[in-house]
TrEMBL record:
HAMAP family: UPF0434
Organism: Orrella daihaiensis
Signal peptide: none
Family membership: Belongs to the UPF0434 family.
Pfam family, one: Trm112p
Name of the molecule in the record: UPF0434 protein DHf2319_06960
InterPro entries: Trm112-like
């Protein structure tokens, strides 16, 4: 994913900054503890599609 796009994308919930996850398969909002998936290079910025992150480790909760 282009870093210019990452600079302008914000979390749809809180409008905060997003970070790329370690395997570059999603964008993370630390404030809301959500991860938005990236599908074929396109970020899916829908709250309903976001995964809740584990509060301690920053990984997806099961």
């Amino acid at each position: 994913m282009d870093h210019k796009l990452l600079d302008i994308l914000v979390c749809p919930v809180c409008k905060g900054r997003l970070q790329m996850n370690a395997d570059k398969s999603g964008l993370i909002c630390r404030a809301d503890k959500l991860e938005y998936p990236i599908d074929d290079g396109i970020p899916i910025m829908l709250q309903a599609q976001a995964k809740r992150l584990d509060t301690d480790s920053g990984v997806n909760a099961s």
